[in-house]
Design goal:
single chain, 459 residues, alpha+beta, Multidrug efflux transporter AcrB transmembrane fold, Alpha-Beta Plaits, four-stranded antiparallel β-sheet, elongated
């Protein structure tokens, strides 16, 4: 009653309040994060990852996964544990209840895993603890390619210079290098020469271990056996490794070069990353940089910052290197959001047209047509106050709310125009018409709120 009387008797005051709501709403609107889905839909997930190069999936499961699962099983609020054992890597994802704080859960898992770190195999890397959302996926994939550099050189440059460049961008949670081929010394053993010298692969492995050369469990690949080793400080070049004694027979010594070919190569031949160039062709000499958004960060904002950083980094790249974006999740999100914006505009136009068709008066349409954008823009203040984001769900709610918002204005406008048609002056009709439908509008609004209220309590 007070608000309607004030708005009728002091129209300038109501206009100023509406303008203030629109101005502040637009100001806040451009600062709201843009996401595909609300962050509340994604329960907290902590991932434990352990790399153990050369180990089979069975060894990974028994010596790493089972040990870690036993110690983390008692953590508070665990909803589900999903473990994956593959050759060279163990991945354990722990999903928590939505009521659990992600940072607290991560610290709890980190403390528990640290208790059993000494029980893991010596050759295994230290466990890596990652916090993420259930919809955790790569936000962007950057591709680093060259027509003149080798894949080893591209990978080395990417790891040394580019990863750190993008790690310090605000909103980056984790960076994964795809297709990275790290430099190592590869020994290609000849089975014929092994047999001729009455040697086995185990003899070569023992000789390498005695020389303190770091050697993982390795894998046997047909038809020639290849073992990967890391160059130890005692060996300055390939020639010194080639002279490694394997077996002594009377007055002669069988050295590594007598039974195998020793040369530089990637740690793993099974790593490959492909990306299409601008002309549509696939370049196999590519290293990918996968960028994951930090928990709660806006994918769209992160994409903008990464693209700005790319422009800066490209100025310092060697002439033969090319850096570009191969995949950007923000492209899909922007397209989906824009489609919802279009639907919102269409719904607004349809509502205005239908109101005009039923009321038959162009002036009567002005009130609902003004009330609608003012209400929707002002809603941005509520999103900002409660720490929400602009996403598909919020925009869908705005589309559904269009009809609800104009209901009250239509009822009020119809009541006033009926009195004007019966001979009352516009001012008197506005006061009396507003008084006659105020409680009806309040009751209608409460009924609509009561219908949607249960949605708040859905977990």
């Amino acid at each position: 009653m007070f608000i309607t009387d004030l708005s009728i008797r002091r129209p300038v005051v109501s206009a100023v309040f509406s303008i203030i709501l629109v101005v502040f709403g637009l100001f806040v609107f451009w600062k709201l994060p843009v996401r595909e889905l609300p962050s509340g839909l994604q329960p907290p997930v902590v991932q434990v990852q352990v790399d153990y190069q050369g180990a089979s999936a069975e060894i990974i499961s028994s010596e790493i996964v089972e040990i870690i699962e036993d110690v983390i099983g008692g953590a508070e609020g665990i909803k589900n544990i999903d473990s994956t054992s593959e050759n060279g890597r163990a991945t354990i994802k722990i999903e928590f209840d939505t009521s659990i704080d992600l940072d607290a859960a991560t610290n709890d898992i980190r403390d528990r895993v640290s208790r059993v770190s000494d029980n893991l195999p010596e050759d295994a890397n230290a466990p890596e603890i990652l916090k993420q959302s259930a919809g955790f996926s790569t936000s962007l994939w950057l591709s680093v390619s060259s027509t003149t550099w080798s894949d080893l050189e591209i990978g080395d440059y990417t790891r040394r210079y580019l990863v750190d460049n993008f790690s310090n961008v605000a909103g980056v949670g984790r960076i994964l290098v795809g297709g990275l081929r790290e430099l190592s010394v590869r020994i290609y053993i000849s089975p014929a020469k092994l047999a001729a010298n009455d040697l086995t692969v185990q003899d070569v492995e023992q000789a390498l271990r005695k020389e303190n050369v770091s050697l993982p469990a390795g894998s046997l690949e047909a038809t020639n056996i290849d073992l990967t080793i890391n160059l130890d400080k005692a060996y300055k070049d390939l020639s010194s490794i080639k002279q490694l004694p394997i077996k002594k027979i009377k007055n002669s010594v069988i050295r590594l070069e007598n039974i195998a070919e020793v040369k530089y190569g990637p740690v793993s031949e099974k790593t490959l990353f492909k990306a299409q160039s601008k002309d549509g062709k696939q370049n196999e000499k590519v290293v990918g940089i996968g960028i994951y958004a930090k928990s709660g960060a806006s994918t769209v904002e992160l994409s903008k910052k990464i693209r700005e950083r790319i422009k800066i980094v490209q100025k310092t790249l060697p002439d033969s290197l090319t850096l570009g974006v191969s995949f950007d999740r923000a492209t899909y999100i922007n397209a989906a959001i824009n489609e919802v914006y279009k639907t919102l505009a269409i719904a607004f136009v349809l509502v205005v047209i239908i109101i005009y068709l039923f009321l038959g008066n162009l002036k009567a349409v002005i009130v609902p047509a003004v009330a609608l954008p003012v209400s929707l823009i002002s809603a941005a203040l509520g999103l900002w106050f409660f720490g929400l984001s602009i996403n598909i769900f919020v925009l869908l709610a705005a589309i559904l709310a269009i009809g609800i918002v104009v209901d009250d204005s239509i009822i009020m406008t119809d009541a006033i125009y009926n009195r004007v048609e019966n001979g009352e002056t516009p001012l008197v009709a506005a006061v009396n018409g507003a008084k006659s439908v105020t409680f009806a509008i309040i009751s209608t609004t409460l009924v609509l709120v009561a219908v949607f209220l249960p949605l708040i309590f859905i977990e």
